[in-house]
Design goal:
Blueprint: E1 17-22, H1 37-52, E2 56-61, H2 69-74, H3 79-105, E3 109-113, E4 122-123, H4 126-134, E5 138-142, H5 152-162, E6 167-172, E7 177-178, E8 190-191, E9 193-195, H6 196-201, H7 209-218, E10 222-226, H8 232-237, E11 244-247
Parallel strand pairs: 1-2, 1-6, 2-5, 3-4, 3-5, 6-10, 9-11
Antiparallel strand pairs: 7-8, 10-11
Helix pairs in contact: 1-3, 5-7
């Protein structure tokens, strides 16, 4: 969705409603499994800082710090079952992030699951999700799309399109999209801007192809940045700091 279709952006930022997509591995910190307390607290304060700008915020978090569906499938678990197990891991992460955000910042937060779990969270209902954000609540979308064979990247693009987000922010371990893995290739260069088609043609692995195609169809720009840098979430929304923006047209 193009900027402006959900209303005017607050002063000093480019977007009014945004979706932050993070991998489950981003919650690991220095741990090998589970959740790092400092990472969760940093995320809570970064999200609060963005909301303080007047921006409506929703999140999608993967489950790779607990279980990965494709890894289980490779170990012999039926693919659909493995994917459902991965979806349940995203609910665990969403509940953890919800709890820390509310404890650290006092901002009311709602977890909405594509798989109904009435005892612990709300079912995903598009109009209710939008209303939550309009009322100043942070919404965390869990359980992916509710279907196997789809990644949480695709779920993020889908929820962003459904709820009228102006931008998807992909929080990664590096400060943008590179021509190669910068941890392995010191000559890799960071792109400031890319088009959706360039990402697909160069197989840059920013998000899966389905997510890129859906973002392109919905005209939702994607900003890739280093989520572990404190304050980076707010800065990139203000057009500052290193990041890569993916849109329909090149600069």
């Amino acid at each position: 969705m193009a900027l402006g279709e959900t209303g005017s952006a607050p002063r000093g930022v480019r977007f009014r409603r945004v979706l932050l997509k993070m991998s489950g591995e981003a919650l690991l910190g220095e741990r090998e499994y589970g959740h790092d307390r400092e990472v969760l607290q940093q995320l809570a304060h970064d999200v609060a800082a963005v909301q303080a700008l007047g921006v409506q915020v929703c999140l999608v978090i993967g489950g790779g710090n607990i279980v990965r569906g494709n890894t289980l499938a490779a170990a012999g678990v039926e693919r659909a079952t493995a994917d459902y197990m991965g979806m349940l891991a995203t609910v665990i992460n969403a509940l953890a992030v919800q709890s820390v955000i509310e404890q650290q910042t006092g901002i009311p937060t709602r977890v909405m699951s594509a798989i109904p779990m009435a005892a612990v969270c709300e079912p995903y209902i598009r109009r209710r999700a939008v209303r939550h954000m309009e009322k100043g609540r942070i919404v965390i979308f869990a359980a992916g799309t509710g279907n196997p064979f789809f990644t949480t990247d695709t779920a993020a693009a889908l929820r962003a399109a459904e709820t009228g987000c102006d931008c998807i922010l992909k929080g990664t371990q590096v400060d943008g999209v590179y021509s190669a893995d910068p941890k392995r290739d010191p000559t890799a260069r960071r792109y400031d801007r890319l088009t959706y088609l360039e990402v697909l043609a160069r197989d840059l692995k920013v998000m899966d192809a389905s997510a890129i195609a859906l973002a392109r169809e919905s005209r939702i720009p994607i900003i890739v940045f280093k989520v572990r840098t404190p304050g980076a979430f707010r800065r990139v929304l203000q057009g500052e700091g290193p990041h890569t923006i993916i849109t329909e047209e090149a600069a």
